[in-house]
C-alpha cells in the first residue's frame, strides 16, 4: 500500500461486520442444558498496513447456571473443575457483560453494524453464546444471530487441514498442546489462523 493510499476500514472489508473470534469451553454439547464454563473473545482490526490483526482479548471463567448439567466426560476432556475456588468464575450474566461490552464498543468505534462470530466450528460456540444471552435476558447481543465465519472451512481450503492444531502448524504457527482446550488459548490461536488466511488471500489478490 502506497503512502498516499488511505487504509481500508474494517467496516468495508467485511460488509459492515466486525469479526470477533470466540471460543467457549462447556460441560456438554447441549447449549440449553449444559453449562458454559469459559468464554474468550478476540476483537480484530485492520492495521495501518491493511493487514488483519488481533486488537484485544477478553476472557472469563463462568459459573454453571442454576440447574445446569455437567457431563463428566466433557469435564474430563477439558480438565475443568467448575467449582475450583481459583477459577474466580463469574455468574453467567456478569461474564457475558464483561465480554459483550468491549465488543459493542469496538463495533461502534469501527463504524460496523454488528459483530460476526469467527470460530472453529462456530455453530457450537454461537449456540452457547446465544443460549446464555437468552437465559440472562440480554437484549443487545452484539453478534449476528446465525451468520458466522468458520475457520474449519477456511483452513481446509488454505492448508488442507481441518483440526485446529494441525491447521495452525500447517500455517506456520506454534502450538502448545498443554494449553489447548483453554478458551483464551484456543480463541487466540484461532484468531491468528483466521488473520493468516485473510491476509494471504488479500495479498494474492492485490
**Overall form:** globular
- Major beta-sheet overview: 5 strands, mixed
Reading off the top of the CATH hierarchy, the class of the domain at 10-149 is best stated as Alpha Beta
Going across the major beta sheet, what is the strand order?
3-2-1-4-5
Q: What is the CATH topology classification name of the domain at 10-149? A: Nucleotidyltransferase, domain 5
Radius of gyration: 17 Å
How much of the sequence lies in strands comes to 15-25%
CATH superfamily of the domain at 10-149: Ribonuclease H-like superfamily/Ribonuclease H
What's the architecture of the domain at 10-149, going by CATH? 2-Layer Sandwich
Spell the H/E element sequence: HEEEHHEHEHHH
Helix content: 25-40%
Uncertain runs: none
Q: Total number of helical segments? A: 7
Distance between the termini: 9 Å
How would you state the average pLDDT, rounded? 95
Q: Which structural class should the secondary elements be placed in?
A: alpha/beta
The total count of strands amounts to: 5
Amino acid at each position: 500500500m502506497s503512502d498516499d493510499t488511505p487504509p481500508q476500514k474494517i467496516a468495508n472489508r467485511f460488509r459492515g461486520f466486525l469479526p470477533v473470534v470466540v471460543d467457549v469451553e462447556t460441560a456438554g454439547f447441549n447449549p440449553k442444558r449444559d453449562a458454559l464454563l469459559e468464554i474468550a473473545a478476540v476483537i480484530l482490526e485492520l492495521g495501518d498496513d491493511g493487514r488483519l490483526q488481533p486488537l484485544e482479548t477478553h476472557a472469563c471463567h463462568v459459573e454453571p447456571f442454576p440447574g445446569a448439567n455437567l457431563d463428566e466426560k466433557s469435564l474430563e476432556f477439558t480438565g475443568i473443575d467448575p467449582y475450583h475456588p481459583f477459577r474466580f468464575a463469574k455468574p453467567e450474566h456478569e461474564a457475558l457483560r464483561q465480554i459483550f461490552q468491549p465488543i459493542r464498543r469496538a463495533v461502534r468505534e469501527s463504524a460496523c453494524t454488528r459483530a460476526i462470530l469467527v470460530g472453529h466450528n462456530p455453530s457450537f460456540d454461537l449456540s452457547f453464546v446465544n443460549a446464555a444471552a437468552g437465559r440472562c435476558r440480554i437484549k443487545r447481543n452484539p453478534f449476528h444471530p446465525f451468520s458466522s465465519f468458520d475457520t474449519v472451512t477456511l483452513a481446509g481450503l488454505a492448508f488442507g487441514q481441518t483440526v485446529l492444531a494441525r491447521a495452525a502448524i500447517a500455517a506456520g504457527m506454534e502450538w502448545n498442546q498443554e494449553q489447548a482446550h483453554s478458551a483464551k488459548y484456543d480463541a487466540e490461536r484461532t484468531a491468528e489462523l483466521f488473520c493468516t488466511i485473510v491476509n494471504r488471500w488479500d495479498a494474492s489478490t492485490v
